[in-house]
Every structure is written in C-alpha cells, then in structure tokens.
Amino acid sequence: MKNICNIIFKTILILIISSIIGFTLLYISYNIPNNRVIKNIVGYFDENNIYINDLKNINSTNLDYYTDSLMLSELIIDGNNKLELTASNKYLFDKNPLNGLKKYLNNESTKQIDYPRYWHGYIFPLKILLLVFNLSQVKIINFYIETLLVLLICLKLNNNKLKEYIIPFILSIFFMMPMTIYKCLEYMFAYNIMLISCLFLLNYYKKLTKNKIYYYFLIIGILTSYFDFFTTPLLTLGYPLLFYMILDKSKTKEKIIKILKISLMWLIGYAGMWFLKWIISSIILHKNVILDGFKNVLYRTSTDKKIHFLSGLKENIKYSLNIIDYLMIISLLILLIYYVIKNIKSMINYNKIIPYLIISLMPIIWFTLITNHSYIHAWFTYRSLSLIIFSLGIIIVKIKNKLE
Fold it and tell me: String of b and e for 354-373 (b: at least 16 CB within 10 Å)?
C-alpha cells in the first residue's frame, strides 16, 4: 500500500512539474520577437493546397498543409498579453488556416481563433529553429535527425546481438512513408519522440529497473501530449514497448502484466498532461476549457450514421495500403506460415508470442475507440498500423528461432 501511494505521489509530482516547465517554455516562446521567424517563413511556405499527395495517387503520402499553416500561424501571432497568448494559443483563420496565414504575412487582417485545449508544445522548438534557419532548412535538419535516429537504432540492435529485428523494424518504418514525414511539421514530433524513446531504451534498458520503466513511459506519454498535435500518439507507446518486450526476459504472464501497467502509466502521462493544460487555460482565460476539452473527447470518440465503430479502422486500412504494402504484408504472412509449418513438429511454446500479439492489437483498439478522429484523419493516423507490421516481423523472428 505504501509503495502504491509513493508511485501515485511521484506520478502527480512529475505531471505538475512537467506542466510548469511546459507552460514556461511556451511563455518564453511568445516573448521571442517574431520578425526573424516571419522572414524565415515568407517565401518558404507558398503552398496553394491545404491537402496534397506527395506522390500521385498514393494516399499514404498526404501532406497536411492545413495543420502546418495552423502551426506556423501560432508562431507569429503577437499581442501585449503574453500570458493570455500562452494559455489561448491563437491561430490565424480565413476559410482555412492557410489563407489566414497568407493574409497575415501580406499584412492583411484575418481572424484569430483560440485553441487552448492542446499544449502546442511544438511552438518552442520550431520558433527557436526558425530564428536561425528558414523553413526549408528546418525540414532538411529534421530529415537528417530522423534518418540518423533510425540508423542509430539499427546499429544498437546490431551491437546488442538483436540484428534479426532490424529488418522488421525497417519494414515498419517504410510503411509509415518517412520521406513524407520530414516534409510535414505536423507529423514529425510523434515520430521523433518514438525514435528517441526507442534509442534511449535500447541504450539504458539495464538501468530502467523495477518502477523506473513505468516512470519512463509516464514521461514518454507526457512528452507526446505536449509536443504532438494528436497525430499518431500510439507510436510513442507501441514501439518502445515492443523493444522492451524483446529485451525483457520475464515469463509470458509477467510480460502481459507489464504491458498493462506500462500502457496505463503512458496513458496517465498522456491524458494527465492534457488535462492540466485545460486547468491552466481555464484559470488564466476565465473560461471553461475543461468542458470544451471533454466535449472534444466525446466528439472524437463518437459515431453517427456515417461513422460507426469500425469506420476508423476501415478508413485507415484503405489509406495505408498500396501495391507495395500489399506485397510486403503478403511476404510477411508467407514467411510466418513457412516457419510455423517448418517447426510444426518442434515442441514450441507459442504462448511467448502473446505479448507481441497484444501490442499488435493496439492500433485496432485505438481506431475503434477514437473512431471519429481516426476516420476523419486517416491519411496520417494510419501510421499506427505500422505496429502490426513490426509485431508480425518480431513474431516471425521468434518462431524462426524457436522462440528463444
């Protein structure tokens, strides 16, 4: 009982400290002069479409300039009351954020809309980067970082004698269309948090003993809530969790319990950090952001005549698959069947693959629960399905090695 109380106390303390740090960073961001930031945006963001496929007829390469415009407009909005700006996170709008941003950059009047229910933590790193680099250069830097992180993870897997998991990992990365991710500001944060979390785990797994692993995933949830714009948050739970299951030598039952505990801690970090933003904004703005937040949660999980509980899953599958992906999935399934048949006479304990099967179900559960959001934004939420690809690849390796 004492241990549980101690965990609860530390969890609440971490959340409160994180929210204070997060709000402070945003406040600093809004106090940074915008002149140089605007200069580094003008001429480097001249898009005419709010949504466009990076590769023709490949829906999974969709670029979301609607949200990118919104994010950029948040960086350059100015006002005398910086505290209110930090709590309200205003963005520009004229039929859509893209038109609003263009009008603002041309010194034309445009509407400003409050958006307090998200943290919008990306404002701080983007503003710092845009003080030095133009928007195109920021995207190139992000490409370098993402590529380096993937390479470092593969190198670490090789050094840890886990090189057989490199191909499943790379295939799952390919499924997410990484050549599109670096071009879109909205996509980069959840993806980078996922990669950094995996790399950190692979490097410091032995130090994340006992309760430390739970606090680690609590912090991942907090960082996801702060920086990500509700794109693919599940990646930051699923990928590190899969690597943790590979490294962990516990029995199957213990692993399943750990999956449940870790998922709960991640969710507490993610939802708890979000809720604290609602509280802070409600106090500063003197408006009920908490009610607005809960209404949005109900809307994003709602169904209607057009959107039923399986619509999110169906739409994500539709957006994610092209002929290349079909070939990849079919190849993986053929390999799985081959190794199952090959080892059919062996005394293999298939219970050991249950933890990976559970994690592979996470995207399906997510799309079923967050139905509305998953259906409407399937062109980027589909990336969570990559967890199934990675899980399937891990299972194939396990069976091939007779579940060693």
Answer: ebbebbbebbbebbbebbbb
